[in-house]
Every structure is written in structure tokens, then in C-alpha cells.
Design brief:
The complex is a heterodimer of chains A (about 400) and B (about 250). By secondary structure, chain A is of the alpha+beta class. Chain A is built from 14 helices and 14 strands. Chain A has two domains: about 180 residues, no CATH class; about 170 residues, no CATH class. In chain A, strands 1, 2, 3, 4, 5, 6, 7, 8, 9, 12, 13 and 14 form a twelve-stranded mixed beta sheet that branches. In chain A, strands 10-11 form a two-stranded antiparallel ribbon. In chain A, a hairpin with a 2-residue loop joins β10 and β11. In chain A, α2 runs antiparallel to α13. Chain A is elongated. By secondary structure, chain B is of the alpha/beta class. Chain B has a domain of about 170 residues: P-loop containing nucleotide triphosphate hydrolases (Rossmann fold). In chain B, about 35% of the residues lie in helices and about 25% in strands. Classes of the chains: A alpha+beta (about 400), B alpha/beta (about 250). Bound molecules: adenosine-5'-triphosphate and magnesium ion.
């Protein structure tokens, strides 16, 4: 009795009940595909968070004013609350007091609608800043150039715009050298930024960046800054940079109680840590859901295998009565189970790969290769075990017992 | 059940045959007990039976007398509670399942009252099956299966599945399947039980033919006209053989 023969018996066995075969295969396929897709979604979401954090720059610390609070904290707040100023930024740029700070960029933000003839666009971000901002915020130039320190000193009305803003205002034509009006003030476009994509709800390419002085003079006034972006020399010295910032800023703002500062700092590294742990919780949750669906699929296979074997106990008895050795019967059922789980698992893997091409709840799934192996392996093992176990029991019966089975 | 002390003294052993051949079947003190303790039943209460090659034996007896139980043991489909069974000189009762499956395939052709064909499988494939389990090559297997189906007169039905065949035709497929391996021993448990008189007649003709070709045939039956075709009739009651006689008309 050769193996090809047994494979033929097995395929014939599967062919005799096509509906059951199809349903089992489908159960396995769905289980496997859902494991692959769900884990890919979890992985995709953490990848997405990771890349948006990378985009922000991990060495940066953002200083913001602590203003406009209410309640106990606001009431007990230092009455000499000062806004962030360019003087703060200058103080932070002191290389002897702050040896771990690479560069500093004060940011004045506003919201203004920009026009080019009849085209209008309201950039999500409109910043007046120093050239250091580009590097500190990981923003690079696609076409044209950055503005320079000289532009800042001279207060030239030049602007670097993001891709969305450029498309809104200029369509497909080249915006470099063109003039746009923002809040009624003319700016000459000197560069466009490389595409950043969307982070959450924010379009990173809906952006206008201009020299701080020009923006302050014509749009925001000189009073206050939105924030000061500080870039540490490396991620390693970020904690030192943080301490230096606090020392300098406390002196600048005459902070008496360090628990009650009129500014706060936002550290990208801590943001990274939180969001990473958030997304790994998410991935674990999805993994659990996926595992449950695989388990349910597995119970389905088990059930069908049990029914199949029980239903065919009589057939097993007949085969034994005409001289089938136990091994041949067992192999037949094992091969049936293997074919079912291989085909089902294979379809599931293909389905998983196809499904992972589509965005799910705004997340582009990224397949984890080990999850494919895991899902496929588990489904095959379940098929083999739960197909093999009842078959082995039936094959061990004396023929007469199997034949008496109704 | 009370183990009746019915002595099997009517037993007639075919002395002419015993002197010239080794027995194909030799059963000594076969006991089959179902259940435990007080509730136990002796389906076989100590049966001795010797059958020689080329014999045609009918086993008769009332319902529940242990005929099927004996037949299943002879066919190595069931085991005994105690006793010895030699098939063609091989001790069967001490064999394990795997060795038994080879014996079943090589030496025995079993025909059931309920046919026991494999569903959704053509007549040809059903007949080929035992040959496949013996590892016989495809061409040879096909040749032998077609020959066996020709012997039972079903050459025109080889591609039909069991549900597309009449009861008589199904039983003939079962006979072809039993014959295909060329077993020394053909066992049939009420093979005509589900057949009409015409089909019964055809099947008995077939058995005559098979026996004439030198094979040993053992048939369980309730019907006297079936028993009448055999050369030897064994009667059972309450798990014992109560008579064993030569069928004068046939042997002569
Ligand atoms: N699996 C079993 N469990 C318990 N008792 C059994 C079993 N099989 C048979 N018996 C009992 O053993 C005895 C003999 O049964 P057996 O089937 O051999 O009778 P039989 O002579 O073939 O009868 P019939 O002519 O009706 O087929 C009966 O009393 C029966 O009830
Ligand atoms: Mg019976």
C-alpha cells in the first residue's frame, strides 16, 4: 500500500462530502486570515505611531507657556506669569550654560488664510520661526531652499510651504518664486517641504513656515511666542538638556516654586515611551482577539473531524474487515486532515496578505511574518491532532466493533 | 443463559478429508462472553469446529444461538473470551491487530448480510479496495477486479455506485470483492437474507461455482434450501454446536 494510493483515498474521502470539506476549509481559512490581519493591524498602528514620532524628531523638547488654566492650580499660580519670548530663546542658545542643547527655535503661530489669485488654502500650521526649526522638527526641503538667518534678521517676507498648501494654491505648477498672500500679507514662496503625510487628524503637509520677524511684524505682534523648540545634541543627553532648560527658564521667568512653573516642556522621548506602550497594548489586545478566533476555528475543525470520523466508523470497520492495516486507515484520515488544514491555512494566508493591503480603521496593516507562520502552523497542528486522534481511536477498534457502529 | 449440557455427540467428522488434508479452520473450546458477572451472556459456550479445505459448510440454528458470533471469530473480525483458533495452521487468537489485518486481507473473503460496500464508491473501486490494501499494482488490480466482477456477472455495472445497484447486485459486488483477493476461505453471514428468491438462486449458483473451483465456503443461513446446497450442515443452539452432519444428497 503506497502513499500515493492513500492520498488518493484521502482526496476521494474529501470529495464525497464537498460541502463539509468546503465549510471546514473556510473555517480554517477565516481563522488564519483573521490572525494575520489583526496582528498586522496592531503592528501597523505601532509602526504608524513610531514613524510619526520619528518625523517629529526624537531629540526635541518643546517648551510651551503654562497659561489659561483654571481652578486651584491657576489660582495659586505665580502672579508674575510671563509669556515665552525671543529673549528666552536667546538665553537657551547660550552654549556655556546649556552645553547639551544643539539649537533653539522660537515659534510664533497664527492661523491665516493664504491666497494665490482665486485659490485659497488655510494651512493647519502657520509658523514664524528661525531656520533651526527645520532641523529640530525633522522637516526637509523638497524643492527650493530654506530661509536663512539673514532673512530672519531682515524680516523678509519669504515662506516655505507644505505639499498640501502648494497643491491648494498652485495645483501642479511650480510655486517657487511665486507670491502668495497670507492674512493679506504678501509672501514669496522660496521652497516646499518633503511630504510628511498625515498624523492622526493632522495633515503634516498643510504648512506655511516663514521667518519669525516677518510673521511677528505683520501677523502676530511681538508679545508672545507659541512655543520654543529645543533640539538636544543627541537622544542620550536629552535629560541633561531638559535640566539645562529648566535652570535657564526658571531664571528667566523668576520661578520661585518649581512645582508651579509658568511654562511646561514636552519631551518627545517620553511621548515615544507612552505611545509605544499604548500601541503594544493595542497589539496584544488584537493578538488575543485573533487567538480567540483561531481557537474557535480550531474547535470548528475538531468538531468536524470528530463528526467525520464517527460518521465513518462503519466505513473504517469495512475497510478493516477487507484487510486494511491500521496504519493505512490512520494515514488516510491524517492526510485528509492535513489537506484540509493545508488548503484552508493556505487560503487563509493568501486572504491575510490580500486583506492587509487595505486600510482598516485608518491603519495600514503591516504583516508580521512570524504571525503568518504561527497561524498557519497552529491550524495545521490542530487539524492533525484533532483529525488524527479520533481516527487513531477508530482505527484501533476491532472491525466488528466499528461495523456495529451506527 | 444457562450453559446447556447438550453434548455435541451427533458431531460427524469427515474422516476421509481429515486423513488427507490439514484443516483450514480449527477451533478449540471457543468461548465468547458478553457482559460481566451475573448479567453475562455466553454467546459461544465452548465450540469445537474443524473445517477442511474445499468444504462447503452451512451453519444453521435459531436466532441468538451464536452463529454470527462464531462467524465473526472465524473471520478474525472479533476476538474470543477464551479458546484456540488456527486458520490454515496459523494461530489467530494470539495475533495483534496489525497482523490480523494482513490475515483478513490474504486468507479470508467476508460477505455480510448488509453487503457493507463503501458508499459513494463505484463497484469497481469497491472490488479493487482489498487488492489495494495488499499493495497489488494498479494494472493487476484492475484486471483482477474486472475478472471478479465478470464472474459475478456485473461487467456492465462496474461504474455504478452502491445506491445505483439493486440489493442482489450489491451483494454480487460484495462477493466479487471477497473473491478478488483469491482467498482460501469464503465466509458469508446470511448473504441471502436481504435478497429475493431469484437473486438468492443466482448467488447460490455462484457459491457452487466458487466451491467447485476449490475454495472453502462457510455460509450462515436460516433457509433450508440454502443449506441444502452445502455439503455439510452444522447446527447450533445456545452457543453450542448440537449437530454436524454431511449433506448426503450433495456429497454423493
Ligand atoms: N455486542 C454484543 N453485546 C452483548 N451481547 C451480544 C452482542 N452480540 C451478540 N450478543 C448476544 O450473543 C448471542 C448470540 O448472538 P449472535 O448474533 O451470534 O446470534 P445469531 O445466531 O447470529 O442470531 P441471528 O440468527 O438472529 O443473527 C445473543 O444472545 C446476543 O444477544
Ligand atoms: Mg446473526
Amino acid at each position: 500500500m503506497n502513499i500515493l494510493e492513500i492520498i488518493r483515498f484521502a482526496t476521494r474521502g474529501l470529495g464525497t462530502n464537498k460541502l463539509r470539506t468546503a465549510l471546514t476549509t473556510m473555517g480554517i481559512a477565516i481563522g488564519v486570515a483573521s490572525v494575520i490581519i489583526l496582528i498586522a493591524v496592531g503592528n501597523g498602528s505601532s509602526k504608524q505611531i513610531q514613524s510619526s514620532i520619528d518625523r517629529l524628531g526624537t531629540n526635541t523638547i518643546t517648551i510651551m507657556a503654562n497659561r489659561g488654566g483654571f481652578g486651584r492650580q491657576a489660582a495659586s499660580r505665580n502672579t508674575s506669569s510671563k509669556p515665552l519670548t525671543v529673549a528666552d530663546a536667546v538665553a537657551l542658545s547660550d552654549a556655556t550654560k546649556a552645553p547639551d542643547i544643539k539649537q533653539v527655535a522660537p515659534v510664533a503661530s497664527t492661523s491665516a488664510t493664504c491666497t494665490n489669485g482665486t485659490n485659497t488654502s488655510t494651512p493647519g500650521t502657520f509658523n514664524g520661526t528661525w531656520p533651526a526649526w527645520f532641523e529640530a522638527s525633522n522637516t526637509s526641503i523638497a524643492k527650493g531652499s530654506y530661509f536663512t538667518n539673514d532673512d530672519v534678521v531682515q524680516g523678509r517676507r519669504v515662506a516655505v510651504i507644505g505639499n498640501t498648501t502648494a497643491t491648494d494654491l498652485f495645483g501642479t505648477s511650480n510655486p517657487i518664486g511665486q507670491e502668495i498672500r497670507c492674512g493679506g500679507i504678501p509672501f514669496t514662496v522660496i521652497g516646499t517641504t518633503t511630504v510628511k503625510g498625515t498624523t492622526g487628524f493632522q495633515d503634516g503637509d498643510s504648512l506655511v513656515v516663514a521667518p519669525l520677524t516677518a510673521v511677528q511684524r505683520s501677523l502676530t505682534g511681538y508679545n508672545s511666542l507659541q512655543s520654543i523648540v529645543v533640539e538636544a545634541k543627541s537622544a542620550k543627553v536629552q535629560d541633561f538638556a531638559q535640566t539645562e532648560i529648566n535652570t535657564i527658564m526658571d531664571a528667566q521667568h523668576k520661578v520661585k516654586n518649581t512645582n508651579n512653573r509658568d511654562y511646561r516642556t514636552l519631551n518627545q522621548a517620553s511621548l515615544l515611551a507612552t505611545s509605544n506602550s499604548n500601541s503594544s497594548v493595542f497589539t496584544v489586545l488584537l493578538g488575543v482577539v485573533a487567538a480567540i478566533s483561531l481557537l474557535v476555528g480550531g474547535i470548528g475543525i475538531t468538531n468536524i473531524m470528530l463528526v467525520t470520523v464517527i460518521e465513518r466508523t462503519r466505513e473504517i470497520g469495512i475497510r478493516k474487515a477487507i484487510g486494511a492495516p491500521k496504519g493505512a486507515i490512520l494515514s488516510q484520515f491524517l492526510i485528509e486532515a492535513t489537506i484540509l488544514s493545508l488548503v484552508g491555512g493556505g487560503i487563509g494566508v493568501i486572504g491575510g496578505y490580500i486583506g492587509s493591503h487595505f486600510k482598516i480603521i485608518g491603519i495600514q496593516p503591516v504583516i508580521v511574518p512570524s504571525s503568518v507562520l504561527l497561524a498557519f502552523g497552529v491550524s495545521v497542528l490542530i487539524g492533525l491532532f484533532f483529525g488524527g486522534y479520533p481516527a487513531s481511536r477508530a482505527a484501533s477498534l476491532r472491525p466488528i466493533e466499528a461495523l456495529r457502529h451506527e | 443463559m444457562v450453559v446447556a449440557a447438550v453434548a455435541a455427540d451427533e458431531t460427524v467428522v469427515d474422516s476421509a478429508m481429515s486423513s488427507t488434508h490439514k484443516p483450514i479452520i480449527e477451533v478449540r473450546g471457543a468461548v465468547k462472553r458478553y457482559g460481566e458477572g451475573d448479567a453475562s451472556i455466553f454467546a459461544l459456550a465452548g465450540v469445537d469446529l474443524t473445517i477442511y479445505p474445499g468444504e462447503y459448510v452451512a451453519i444453521m440454528g435459531p436466532s441468538g444461538s451464536g452463529k454470527s458470533t462464531l462467524m465473526n471469530i472465524l473471520g478474525a473480525l472479533d476476538n474470543m473470551t477464551s479458546g484456540k483458533y488456527f486458520l490454515d495452521g496459523i494461530e489467530i487468537d494470539s495475533m495483534d491487530e496489525n497482523a490480523l489485518s494482513i490475515v483478513r486481507g490474504r486468507k479470508i473473503g467476508f460477505i455480510f448480510q448488509s453487503f457493507n460496500l463503501i458508499a459513494r464508491t463505484t463497484a469497481l473501486a469497491n472490488v479493487e479496495l482489498p487488492l489495494a490494501y495488499q499493495g497489488i499494482k494498479k494494472d493487476e488490480r484492475r484486471k483482477r477486479a474486472l475478472k471478479a466482477l465478470e464472474v459475478v456477472g456485473l461487467s456492465d455495472r462496474i461504474d455504478h455506485e452502491p445506491t445505483e445497484l439493486s440489493g442482489g447486485q450489491q451483494q454480487r459486488v460484495a462477493v466479487a470483492r471477497a473473491l478478488a483477493t483469491r482467498p482460501a476461505l469464503l465466509l458469508a453471514d446470511e448473504p441471502t437474507g436481504a435478497l429475493d428468491s431469484k437473486s438468492t438462486h443466482d448467488l447460490l449458483d455462484l457459491f457452487d461455482q466458487i466451491n467447485a473451483a476449490g475454495r472453502t465456503v462457510v455460509v450462515i443461513t436460516h433457509e433450508d434450501d440454502v443449506a441444502a446446497r452445502a455439503k455439510r450442515v452444522v447446527r447450533m443452539r445456545d452457543g453450542l454446536i448440537i449437530s454436524d452432519t454431511l449433506n448426503k444428497g450433495r456429497v454423493a
